[in-house]
Design goal:
three-stranded antiparallel sheet; 10 strands; 42% helix; 15% strand; flat
Length: 378
């Protein structure tokens, strides 16, 4: 049964469980978890010539069918989302009797814990599983924290920011429900008595105490005047305050505030690449590094590693990619098929050979021409 979240989120109620009811936090979670979930990934093996891409049953399991109920995208999105909220995300590794990977079963963040033995070794306790699980049977993504093997929740660490954001939500709702006019003081030159004050207060509240009555005219008699007491919350004040908190949420997760829809004065579309570069460097790369490291330790044989490919996020427009690829091909840095792969084009026959332009050869000659000249001189 689905339970609607409380619409009146108070500062004392902000927890990792309900922090996503705040729009900037929800945007940050969907952005990062969705991007990492759809990032291309590969497994490489270390050779004498460096790392080479190979097929991997572990990668196939993670990217396509981690378990019976989730696609690879859904599994990774859930794990990253949980990691961002709780600081930890876990999944039980199930294998066949022969040791082959069978599935990865995610567990709720409050249903597993890491425990220490007296000899210093560790194990996991997962609710509804009676036996202790050794570390090689649990995938555990964790952020940094005060404990070496357990992560701290950014929501808990950044509680002051989220408290302020919740207060802004509550204050804005209270102010804008009355037309954002603030507290009104009615002043009379005469003493009108307690009963008259009570009637006047109730009458004012009924006629002007909500946003729908903002157009109702005020009629003052007997020299009575009305004025605003204290600061009132205008639309510009509200936007500035919300914008500040959105920037703070971006700082919590390492996301450029513009990507959370914060209004940055002077920012234009020309800054898009700079924002994406900062997003990859300060946010996504940190998550993928800890994810890849845990998968390497728990699921891959020695000498293999999992890497994520950010090129599609940073490659720019099609004409920019083509221009860069052409220069790389001419310089002998990239083959035609490698360039076609960047553009999601099929491979062609003969496209795996490096081709050097005359401009990049000694004396402006190709390798074949240099060999021919050397033969003639001999």
């Amino acid at each position: 049964m689905f339970l609607w979240p409380n619409g009146d989120l108070g500062t004392a109620d902000v927890t990792p469980t309900n922090a996503d009811t705040l729009p900037p936090v929800a945007r940050a979670l969907e952005l990062v978890s969705g991007d990492i979930g759809r990032l291309p990934a590969c497994v490489q093996v270390e050779t004498s010539a460096g790392y080479e891409k190979i097929d991997s049953p572990a990668l196939d399991l993670i990217k396509h069918h981690p378990n019976e109920y989730q696609s690879g995208y859904e599994f990774m999105r859930y794990m990253v989302r949980t990691l961002m909220l709780q600081g930890n995300a876990g999944a039980v590794i199930r294998r066949t009797r022969g040791g082959e990977l069978l599935e990865l079963v995610p567990v709720l963040p409050d249903r597993f814990r890491i425990q220490y033995r007296t000899d210093g070794s560790v194990y996991y306790r997962v609710a509804d599983i009676p036996e202790d699980l050794e570390p090689d049977r649990v995938i555990h993504f964790r952020l940094s924290g005060t404990a070496p093997l357990w992560g701290d929740s950014p929501v808990v660490r950044g509680r002051a920011t989220l408290d302020l954001l919740a207060e802004q939500e509550a204050t804005g709702r209270a102010h804008f429900s009355t037309g954002a006019v603030g507290k009104i003081a009615l002043t009379s030159p005469e003493l009108i008595g307690d009963s008259a004050v009570a009637r006047l207060r109730e009458s004012w509240k009924a006629s002007h105490g909500n946003a729908g009555a903002i157009s109702t005219p005020m009629i003052m008699q007997g020299g009575m005047t009305a004025s605003t007491v204290g600061a009132n919350l205008s639309q510009s004040d509200w936007l500035k305050a919300r914008n500040f908190s959105t920037q703070q949420v971006g700082m919590m997760f390492g996301i450029p505030p513009q990507m959370l829809y914060a209004d940055e004065t002077g920012e234009t579309a020309e800054h898009t690449y700079t924002q994406l570069r900062a997003y990859v460097d300060s946010c996504l790369s940190h998550y993928t590094e800890l994810i890849g490291g845990e998968i390497q330790r728990k699921l891959l044989p020695p000498g293999e590693r999992m890497t994520f490919d950010f090129r599609h996020m940073l490659r720019g427009s099609v004409d920019q990619v083509v221009a860069a690829a052409r220069q790389a091909i001419d310089a002998g840095v990239m083959t035609q098929n490698e360039a076609r792969e960047m553009l999601n084009l099929p491979r062609i026959e003969g496209g795996d050979e490096l081709v050097f332009s005359k401009n990049y050869s000694a004396g402006g000659l190709t390798d074949a021409e240099q060999d021919e000249d050397a033969t003639d001189e001999a």
